[in-house]
């Protein structure tokens, strides 16, 4: 299952105190299985969390307050990367 895959890849939904939901859609419909990772820098070199969207197009991260960048990847789609956001 996906849990084993996450552990093997040392992927984490984060260790922060704020629950932050990232929602991904194609403009109309939610996208399932989008690889989403969160970095603290616009170059994408300091990753703090990673996960993939569910059937509702949502993935929930646990982040501390601060500024972050979300990166998204799914075969066949072009996303605007990175997308900056602030957790408060």
Write the topology of this structure:
Layout: H1 2-8, E1 18-23, E2 35-39, E3 47-52, E4 58-63, E5 66-73, E6 83-87
Antiparallel strand pairs: 1-4, 2-3, 2-5, 5-6
How would you concisely characterize the structure shown here?
Helices cover 8% and strands 41% of the residues.
Overview of this protein structure:
- There is one protein chain.
- It contains 1 helix and 6 strands.
- The chain has 88 residues and is mainly beta.
- Strands 3-2-5-6 form a 4-stranded antiparallel sheet, with no helix packed on it.
- The termini are far apart.
- Residues 1-10 have low confidence and may be disordered.
Strand-residue proportion: 35-45%
Report low-confidence residues grouped into runs of 5 or more: 1-10
Share of residues in helices: under 10%
Sheet of most strands: 4 strands, antiparallel
Placed side by side, the strands forming the largest sheet appear as 3-2-5-6
- Work out the radius of gyration: 12 Å
The count of strands amounts to 6
SSE arrangement, N to C: HEEEEEE
Span between termini: 33 Å
Structural class determined from secondary elements: mainly beta
Mean pLDDT score: 88
Outline: globular
How many helix segments? 1
């Amino acid at each position: 299952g996906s849990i084993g895959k996450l552990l093997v890849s040392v992927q984490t939904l984060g260790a922060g105190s704020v629950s932050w939901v990232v929602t991904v859609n194609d403009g109309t419909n939610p996208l399932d299985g989008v690889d989403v990772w969160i970095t603290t820098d616009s170059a994408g070199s300091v990753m703090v969390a990673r996960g993939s969207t569910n059937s509702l197009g949502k993935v929930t991260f646990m982040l501390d307050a601060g500024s972050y960048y979300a990166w998204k990847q799914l075969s066949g789609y072009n996303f605007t990367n990175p997308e900056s956001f602030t957790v408060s």
